[in-house]
Automatic annotation (TrEMBL):
PROSITE patterns referenced in this protein's UniProt entry, alphabetically: EXOI_SH3
ExoI SH3-like domain span: 193-297
InterPro entries: EXOI_SH3, RNaseH-like_sf, RNaseH_sf
Protein name as it appears in the record: ExoI SH3-like domain-containing protein
GO molecular function (one): nucleic acid binding
Lineage, broadest ranks: unclassified sequences, metagenomes, ecological metagenomes
Source organism per UniProt: marine metagenome
Amino acid sequence: MNLAIWDIESSNANTDFGSIIEVGGILVDENFKEKDRFNLRCRLPEGEIPQCMALIVNRTSVEQLTKVNLGHYQMLGELEKIFKKWSPAIFIGWSNIGFDDEMIRKEFFKGIRYPYITNSSPNKRHDGLNIARGAYAIDSNVLEAEINEKGNAVMKLESLSRVNGLEVSGAHSALFDAELTLKILNLIKNKQPQTWNEFFKTSSRADTETIIKKENIITLNEYFYGKSRLYLCTPLHPKYCIHPIYQWGQAVDLRVDVEPLLNMSINDLKLEMKKSPKFLRTIRSNKAPIILDKSYA
């Protein structure tokens, strides 16, 4: 399946109040051979006040916000045409699930366009940041990384690119960041080929839930407090492994002795679930989690 590697620059760090002002992308096949690319920039919607820090980061001038030819609504229309032309594909960026995807969904919704274009069938989505964190957790030699004052590896795109020998002078522009994402992913693919296809098995909610219901023991990659960790887990019974409200997978952390849990009452289990460390781990099925073979934990 083709990879649609894309990135946006926005007028605000908050997806509720900002607008997309630049978007770029590169379409490649499974061997990273380029098939197409684009870059679009538009004027700021009339009446919107941009966030100064956002403009400093993406180096956008007032002239660029006001004098480019393409209007905001026009740009979204062109973007929709391109993404439809690129389908089916796995849409992937750098931290796109937490920001870019949310931004484009809200922008498309406000423009009366279908908001889930990047992950609705036949398309799927993943996140380059998730893949980099997972690959680094398996083998820290896969990428060079800066270490911050807390002793944690820095996974910001510009930092990773720079320390891995890539030119970063154009970072924080849409197409350039898409190119950096492509190059970092290519490094991971070449240095860790045995896990590359495994990473993409969770590119859709349905595929992820199939793994959760089918496998008895899995390795789950999670990131918190600045560290990427691998956990050996066993999903709950296939009939009950999906949370009834949040619709996310549930698995037991096998660092915990499960025997006492089996003999607890429902009320005791509820109390136990509130304690730390938690014995139950949540698998965010629709956010491209990294799930690997049990041998990696």
